[in-house]
Amino acid sequence: MALKLGKVYGRHCSLLHGIVCLEGKKGKKRGAMVRFAGIDNELQKILDANMDEARARRRARDAFKHIQLNIDHILFKTPADGLKIKESYEVNSRGLEIFTKSWLPGTSSPRAVVCYCHGYGDTCTFYFEGIARKLASSGYAVFAMDYPGFGLSEGLHCYIPSFDRLVDDVMEHFSKVKEDPAICNLPSFLFGQSMGGAVTLKLHLKQPNAWNGAILVAPMCKIADDMLPPMLVKQFLIGVANVLPTKKLVPQKDLAEAAFRDSKKREMTSYNVIAYKDKPRLKTALEMLRTTQEIEQRLEEVSLPLLILHGGADIVTDPSVSKALYEKARSSDKKFKLYKDSYHSLLEGEPDEAIIQVFNDIVSWLDEHSKETNA
User: Fold this and answer.
1) What does the alpha-carbon distance between residue 261 and residue 312 come to, in Å, rounded to a whole number?
2) Rounded average pLDDT over 76-82
3) Which candidate, 284, 264, 249, places its Cα nearest to that of 119?
4) How far apart, in Å, do the first and last CA atoms of the chain sit?
5) What counts of helices (H) and strands (E) characterise the chain?
6) Which positions are catalytic?
7) Is the separation of the CB atoms in 215 and 309 below 8 Å?
8) Three-class SS state of 163
9) What does the H/E/C string look like for 97-127?
10) Average pLDDT over residues 9-20
11) β-strand 112-117 against 188-193: which pairing, if any?
12) Which pLDDT belongs to residue 372?
C-alpha cells in the first residue's frame, strides 16, 4: 500500500537543484517541519533534529529508511532481489569518514562500472537507490558516495569550502573502487546529475584519460540566470563570505514547480529527510558559481564520449549550456538529447512514462558503449 503524505506546514517551497525547502505561508523559514502520517513522536523528534552534523543525519536515515523505500514512486518499484548491495564508511586521506554504497548484479558478471555523482544538498541513499537498482538489474556495477558534508558523510551539512577539494575526495574514492581486481579491467563510466554533472566534468578535466565516457543529466554547467541574486547582492555576499563562510544567507527563489513536473512526485521530496533544506551557505554558493564559470570557459577541453540529457523547461540549470557543451566538446562521440517538456529532475520528478524513456536512453547508451569498449 502506498504511504500517504501527512500534513505539511506551509505550502511555499524554495528549491535549488532539485532539493525542496519548506517555508511558512508568509515566507518565514520553517526548516524541516514536515509531519508524516502514521509515525510516532519519537521518530518525529529524530526527523526534526538539527541536521548540521552527520550523526543526526545518520540517525534520521536509519530510523526512516524503511518508510522511504515503500513510497509510491516508480524508482522504488525495481526489486532489489538478487542484487549485491553494500553500504560502508571509509576514512579518506583527509581523515573524513565517507559514506559509500555499491549495487552489483547478483547472478552475472557486470558489463561495466558506473560511478555516480549526486546533486546539490542530496545523498545517494534516497532517489538514487532506485536508479542504482535499475542500472544494476541491467548488468552494471554501480558505485556512489556522499560528498563530505552531504548525506551520511562526515562534515558540516552542505558546506563546500573548496569545490576542487570535493572533486579530489570523489576522485580518491572512485580511483580506489576501480583498483578492485574483480572490476579493474571493465569499462568505467561517470554519471552526474545537476551539481554532480559539474563534479563529473571536473573529474574528467583532472583525469582526461581515466574514463570511458560520461552521462550528464541536467548538468550544472551554468546556474540559470533566474537563480542568481542581483549583482549588488552578489558582491555583498562575496564580501561577507570571507568572514562568515558557513552562514545560510544566500537568497533563493521559489522554483519547486520548475524542478518536479509531476505534482505527486513533488510532494514525495519531503521523504528525502536528510536532504539539505536551508538557504545555501555563503561559501558553498560562491564555490558553485565559481565552478560553473570555470567549466563554461573549458567546454572545449572535454574529450570523453558523452551522453547529455536535459529538460527543455529546466530553469534550475541552463539547458543552453548543455547544448554548448555538446557543440564545443572535442569529443568525437557525443550525443545531446533535449526533452522538450521536461523539467530539471528528469529521473525523479517527471511522469512515469517520461522517466522510463530517460532510463531507456541511458541504458541503451551504456549497452552500446560497453560493447564497443569490451570489443
Assistant:
1) 12
2) 89
3) 284
4) 45
5) 11, 10
6) 194, 314, 344
7) yes
8) helix
9) EEEEEEEECCCCCCCEEEEEECCCCCCCCCH
10) 30
11) parallel
12) 72
DSSP structure class, residue 316: S
Closest by CA position to 187, among listed 215, 216, 214, 211: 211
> Looking at residue 244, what DSSP letter applies?
-
Q: At what angle do helices 282-297 and 195-206 cross, to 10 degrees?
A: 60
Average pLDDT, the chain: 87
Cα–Cα nearest to 214, from 295, 130, 145, 115 = 115
348 close to 251: Cβ distance less than 8 angstroms? no
- pTM for this prediction: 0.88
For 24, the grid coordinates are 511558512
Mean pLDDT over residues 246-269, rounded?
80
Q: Is residue 223 pLDDT above 80, yes or no?
A: no
Bridge partner residues of 234 (DSSP): none
> Does pLDDT of 84 surpass 80?
yes
Grid cell in block for residue 148: 563530505
Say what the pLDDT of residue 226 is.
64
Q: Which three cell numbers stand for residue 56?
A: 543526526
Percent of the chain with pLDDT over 70: 86
* CA–CA distance, 255 with 235 (Å, rounded to integer): 23
Classify residue 285 as exposed, middle or buried by CB count within 10 Å of its CB (0-12, 13-18, 19+).
Answer: buried
Q: How many CB atoms lie within 10 A of CB 344?
A: 29
pLDDT over 60 at 37, yes or no? yes
